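Course exercise 7: structure representation. Students receive a sequence record and must write out the corresponding structure in token form. The form below is the worked example handed out in class, using Type I restriction endonuclease subunit S (182 residues). Read each field label carefully; the graders check that inputs and outputs are placed in the correct fields and that the protein name is recorded exactly as given.

STUDENT ID: A-19
EXERCISE PROTEIN: Type I restriction endonuclease subunit S
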Amino acid sequence: MAFDLPNGWSWCRLKDICSIFTGATFKKEETVTTKEGVRILRGGNISPFELRIKDDDIFLTKDKVKEDIILKENDILTPAVTSLENIGKMVRVNSDMPNTTVGGFVFIIRLYLKNQWLSKYILYLLSSPFMIDFMKSITNKSGQAFYNIGKERLSTALLPIPSLAEQHRIVAQIEKLFEQLR
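STUDENT ANSWER:
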């Protein structure tokens, strides 16, 4: 274990609380120019804690996208292939996005327990320096500037999990501090 935890906390692996999968893969000629169908979000749509819809987003027809990768409330998104400085860039999906998914170079982290406090706690935990250092340690360099985060290795991340009530308190405190920064 990485360190001792307070009473009531326990260690678990990321794979014990979620599924991790990638988004849609497609050929450039399969995209549609009309803004209809399924919007495909890429790494550039993900800012820390903010999902950005862009004018240059691409779209696929619905028949090209599997239903199980459509974005759902509480999903956490992070680039799977990115620059070193963007490792750990995460965002939480705040509500179901019925006609939206991510591209094949982005991970969808979908928790088994559908709970906003758990998903926010995991979002903030995965965005912490402790976890970013872990993610950097498991990446493989791909080409000149990109790093691949391996799904299997990411799934082994060891997470400190408190009770749901404590998660709520932690998330509330983090969000209070974020509000003061705005």
